[in-house]
Amino acid sequence: MTDALTLSQVKKRFGPAEIIRGVDLALAPGERHAIIGPNGAGKSTLFNLISGRYPLSSGQVQLHGRRISGLAPHQINRRGLSRSFQITNLFQRMTVFENLRCALLWARGYGYSFWHLVGRQSALNEEAEQHLEKLGLQKRRDVPASLLTYAEQRTLEIGTTIAGGANVILLDEPTAGMSLSERDHAIELIRNVTVDKTLLIVEHDMGVVFDLADRISVLVYGQIIASDEPDQIRGNAEVQNAYLGT
Amino acid sequence: MSTSNFPGGAIVRHAAVWIAAIVVIIVMPYVFTSSSSVSMMSQMGVFIVFALSYNMLLGEAGMLSFGHAVYFGLGGFLTLHAIRAVNDDVWSFPLELMPLVGGLGGLAFGVIFGSVSTRRAGVTFAMITLGIGAMVEASANMFTNFFGGESGVSGNRVTEVTLLPFSYGPQIEVYYLIGAWTIVAALLMFLLTKTPLGRMANAVRDNPERAQFVGYSTTIARFIQFALSGFFAGIAGGLFAILFEIMTAPNVGLIQSGAVLLMTFIGGLGVFFGPIIGAVLVTYMQIALSGFSEGWILYFGLLFVLMVMYVPNGIAGVIVSHFAPWQAGLAHRFAVPYLLAIVPALLALAGLVTMIEMGYHLSLAYDPSRPIELFGMEITATSVAAWVVAVALFAAGLVALRWVAGRIRQRWGEVNQAMDAQRAKQ
Ligand SMILES: Nc1ncnc2c1ncn2[C@@H]1O[C@H](COP(=O)(O)OP(=O)(O)OP(=O)(O)O)[C@@H](O)[C@H]1O
Ligand SMILES: [Mg+2]
Predict the structure, then answer these.
(1) Which residues surround ligand 2, an ion (CB under 5 A)?
(2) Which chain B residues are closer than 8 Å to A105 by Cβ?
(3) Is the CB of A14 under 6 A from ligand 1?
(4) CB distance from A102 to chain B under 8 Å?
(5) A112, CA 20 to 30 Å: which among A203, B4, B220, B365?
(6) ipTM of the complex
(7) How far is CA B44 from CA B55, B263, B267, in A?
C-alpha cells in the first residue's frame, strides 16, 4: 500500500541557516503520528514545507505517492491535505458558523460560484451545523471568531482544518495554552474527527503524545533522531538525552 | 436546521427594504419636480451603481484600486458608440438594454487588466491599478477615433429603437430607466455577497493565507471579483452615457477614479448600503457646491481628510454603531450631546467657509475689494475685521466642539456600560 505521506531528504535553508537538515518520514494511511522535539527544532517549519507555505530547499514530499512539493497551498489542500496553525489563523471577522462554512465550500464543489446563494444550500449548511455540534460551539454559532475565548478559537482552528474532509491532517500544537480540562476535551475531539484519517500532530504534552500516537518521531535541530512506536521511544536512550530527560 | 439559516423573518425584512427602495425611486420625481432635481437624481443612480461596484473591490475584497474609472469610462464610450451605430442605422439594439454593452465592455477590460493587476495584493495591486488608469487616460490622445479627441464622443439617445413605448428624450423617462437599472444592479451586487465567491472575497480580504489552506486560490478569487466589478462599473458608465449623451477622456481618468473612492469611503466600506449614501451625498454636494463656490474641490478634500481621520467607517459605520444602543432603548441618551454639537460645528464651519471664500476672492477676483455675498451678508474680503471675525468664529467653534466631543465620548462610555449590564442580567 502506498504511504499517505512521504518525505524524502527534505531540507530547508533560511539564508545561511539550515533549519531542516534532511528529513525522511513515511506515514501509513490511518496512522496517527506525533512529532516531538524541543523549541526551535523546526517542527512548525516542517509543517510549512509539507503544506506548501514555504518552498523546499531540496528534497521531495509525496501525498499518496504523488509529488506535492512545489505546488501552491490551495492545490495541496485540494489533494486532501489540511493543516492547522500553531498561532490561531481564522477568518476573524466572520462568525463561527461562517468560518466552518467557508472551510467546506471548496470541498463541496462550490468553487468560485457566483450563481449559488450559500444561505440556500441546505446540505452545505446542514454539514456546517454538524461540525458546529461536533465542536461543541453551537452556543457560539453567530459570534465573530475574534470574540471567542482562546480555547474556543483553538477548537475552531481544529474544526476549520478538518471540516473539508481532507484525509491527511496536520495539527500544530492544537492544545497549547489550554487548561487541563479543555485539553482533555480537545484530545477527545481530535481522536473522534481523525478516525480513518492520517494524522501528523506536533504536541508538547507527553501524556497526550504517548496516549494518542501510533508512532512518534523526535525532531532535534532539524533532524529526526528517532522514529518508532511510543514504548520504544520511551526507552530510547538517545531520545532521553536529547529531549525527554531535559 | 436549514430554516434557521434562512429565517423567514430575514427574507421579509430584506424584501421590505428593496420594495421601499423601489417606492422611493418612483416617488422622488413627484417630490422634487424641477428638471435640475430630476437630472441630479439620475446622476445619483449612476454613481450609486459605480460606487457599489467599487465597493466590491475595496469593501468586499480589500482591494484598493486607483483606476476604477477605466471600466466605468470604457463602458460608457462603448455604449455611446453602440448608440451612434443605432443612430446611423448600422445596428439595431433597444436603448433600454444599452447599459449591457457598457457592462460587457467593463467585464472584458476587467478580464484583460485584472489578469495583470490581481496577481498581486495590497500596495502592489494599488500601484498597478494607478498605472493602468494613467495609461488608459493617456491613450485617449492616441486612439482619437474611439475617444473622440478633445471634444469627446457624443450620440443621440433617442434612437427610436426601444422595447417600451418611450422615446427617452424627456429627462424623466431617462430617470426611470436609470432607476430601474440601479435597483437591478444593486440587487445583483447584494446577492453576490451571499454567494461562494462573495464569501471567499471576504475571506481573502480578512485572511488570505487561511483562504489558501481551505482550497482557494486568492489570485483567482480576486480576479473574478475584479472582473465582475468591472462589469457593474461598465453598466454605470453605460447609464452615464445615456444620461449625458457625451463621453470625454476625463471620464476614464484618475480624477474620476478618485471620485468613486471618495464616495465609497465617505459612505462607508463595511456596510452594503454605505456606498449608496456616499454616492447620493457626494453627487449632491458636487452639484450644489460647484454652483456655490470656486473652491468646491477644496471642500471635498477637507471633507475627505476629516472623514479619514475621525470617521474611518464612514457615514454608514456611524449609523450602524447606533443600532445596538437603539435596540437596548438607550439611543435617546445621545440626543442632548448630539444637539449640543450642532451649534459649535456650524460656527466652526461658517468661520472656515468665510476664510476660504475670502481667500479665493482675494486671489481670483478682478476687484478684490468688491464685497462677496455669504450667508445672506455682504462681506468685504479686504477688511481686516472680517478676517478677525472669521478666525474667531472658527477657533471658538473648534474649542467648543472639542468640549462637546469629550461629552459624547463620555456618554458612549456610559451607554456601553449600561448595555453590558443589560446583557449580564439576561
Ligand atoms: N521564515 C523564517 N525565516 C527565518 N527563520 C525561520 C523562519 N521560520 C522559522 N525559522 C527558524 O527556524 C527555527 C525553527 O522554527 P520552528 O518554528 O519550526 O520551530 P518549532 O520546532 O516549531 O518550535 P516551537 O516548539 O517553539 O513551536 C527557529 O530557529 C526559527 O527562528
Ligand atoms: Mg512550532
Answers:
(1) A 43-44, 86
(2) 196, 199-200, 214-216
(3) yes
(4) yes
(5) B4
(6) 0.92
(7) 16, 11, 13
CB atoms within 10 A of CB B332: 9
CB of residue A84 inside a 6 A radius of ligand 1: no
Interval B351-385: pLDDT, tens: 999 998 888 888 888 888 888 888 888 888 888 89
Q: Whose alpha carbon is nearest atom 8 of ligand 1?
A: A45
- Contacting residues for A232 by C-beta, under 8 A, at least 6 apart: none
B221 Cβ under 8 Å from any chain A Cβ? yes
**Amino acid identity, residue B87?**
N
Smallest CA–CA distance, residue A37 to chain B, in Å, is 25
**A212 CA to chain B: closest CA distance, Å?**
25
Q: State residue B423's pLDDT score.
A: 83
pLDDT in tens, B235-292: 999 999 999 999 999 999 999 999 999 999 999 998 999 999 999 999 999 888 887 7
Low-confidence ranges of chain B (pLDDT < 70): 1-9
Q: What is the pLDDT of residue B389?
A: 92
pLDDT for B368 equals: 82
* Cα of B265 vs its chain's centroid, Å: 8
Question: A135 CA distance to ligand 2 centroid (A)?
Answer: 24
Report pLDDT for B32: 95
- Flag whether residue B380 sits within 8 Å of chain A, measured between CB atoms: no
Q: Is B112 helix (H, G, I), strand (E, B) or coil?
A: helix
The pLDDT of residue A96 is: 97
Which amino acid makes up residue B68? Answer: H
Tell me, what's the pLDDT at B205?
A: 95
Please state, in angstroms and rounded to a whole number, the distance separating the CA atoms of residues B263 and A242. Answer: 62
Residue A61, SS3 per DSSP:
strand
Which site among B13, B205, B213 would you substitute to test the A interface, given the most A Cβ atoms closer than 10 Å to its Cβ? B213
Residues of chain A with pLDDT under 50: 246
Full set of structural domains in chain B with CATH: 32-314 (1.10.3470), 323-425 (no CATH)
How many other C-beta atoms lie within 10 A of the C-beta of residue A41? 24
pLDDT of residue B366: 82
The CATH label, of 3.30.1490.100, 2.102.10.10, 3.40.50.300, 3.40.30.10, for the domain at A5-244 is 3.40.50.300
